[in-house]
Amino acid sequence: MSLMDETSSTKGKILIVDDEADVREVLKLHLAAGKFSVLEASNGEEAITLMKMGSNLVQVGLIICDIRMPKVNGIDAINYIRSNAPSIPILVITGYPDTNLAVSLMEKGVKGYLVKPVEKDVLLKKVKEVFEAPQDFQYA
C-alpha cells in the first residue's frame, strides 16, 4: 500500500510533528489506544515535505504540532498548513507554555494548546472533541 493509499481517508488520521522521538512514540501509543491512525514527522520541514507528497496535499483529519523544533519550527509549519490546507485542524503541544503565543495561535485557528507531558485521557478527550466538532469540509 502506498502512502497516498494510506492517507486517502482523513477520518481518524493524525499527523504528529515533534522533534522528540520519545514524545512522538508516547503520543502514538496514546492515540492508538483511541483507535486513531498516526503519521509522524520529526520537524516542520519534514511535515511540509510529507504533506506535499503526490499531486495533492496529503490529507489528515488532525495535526498535532510541537513549537520548538529544528529546521522549520512549529510556528512556520502552522503558517504553511493554514495557508495551504486551512481546513485541517491543528492542536499545539509544547513543553514551553506561553500565554501570548497560545492566544496568537488560537486566533490563527489552532483548535487547542496542550502542555507536555500530556496525560493520555486529556489528549484523547481533546482529539475526540476536534474530530466531533463541525468542520469546514467533509471527511473522505
From TrEMBL:
SUPFAM superfamilies: CheY-like
Record keywords: Phosphoprotein
Domain Response regulatory, first and last residues per copy: 13-131
GO BP annotations, alphabetical order: phosphorelay signal transduction system
Alphabetized InterPro entries for the sequence: Bact_response_regulator, CheY-like_superfamily, Sig_transdc_resp-reg_receiver
Cited Gene3D superfamilies: 3.40.50.2300
Modification 4-aspartylphosphate, positions: D66
PANTHER family linked to this entry: RESPONSE REGULATORY DOMAIN-CONTAINING PROTEIN, STRESS RESPONSE REGULATOR PROTEIN 1
Name of the protein in question: Response regulator
